[in-house]
Design brief:
Length: 161
């Protein structure tokens, strides 16, 4: 399933849940359809803004990776720590790069933050420069926006040059 399709499915599910809840909780004397309609509109708006933010972050990450010229796949060189939510509400994850080459290299690592269902919530690119041969270096991936709940992190792309 593509990210766009997943985002659309999420919006439909959220809208359905909000409509069902609004219909069940209406206190306007039988005008539940009006309440449900307003709730569905609000939910669709929130879902649209959420997917717009993720799409924007994904586009920015793609541009940053594209600017990393002559990179080779280095996903095997990257390890992630468990993500946590900071005092500012943004998710962070420790990124450890171990240079497997015989000379110093720089890395661009795309980190995806996801919910427990695997839905993409945010994505960032971390650069780790001048990692010595056979050496390791740490960096921190920090989400672009506030996230909450049980957040997972994975490496989307890792390039070395």
């Amino acid at each position: 399933m593509t990210r766009k399709a997943a985002g659309g499915l999420w919006a439909v599910l959220l809208t359905t849940a909000v409509m069902s809840t609004a219909a069940a909780c209406s206190d306007d004397g039988g005008k539940a359809s009006s309440t449900a309609s307003k709730a569905a509109s609000a939910a669709a708006s929130v879902a649209s803004r959420g997917s717009d933010v993720v799409a924007s972050a994904t586009a920015a990450a793609g541009e940053k990776l594209k600017g990393f010229k002559n990179g080779v796949n280095a996903k095997a060189d990257v390890r992630l720590g468990s993500p946590s939510i900071g005092h500012d509400g943004r998710a962070t994850a420790r990124v450890t790069v171990t240079n497997s080459a015989d000379s110093a290299k720089s890395y661009a690592v795309q980190i995806n933050f996801r919910d427990p269902s695997g839905n993409l919530l945010d994505t960032v690119v971390v650069t780790v420069d001048d990692v010595g041969p056979k050496a390791s270096k740490d960096a921190t991936a920090r989400s672009n926006r506030k996230l909450s709940g049980d957040i997972k992190a994975d490496v989307g792309t890792a390039l070395r040059h």
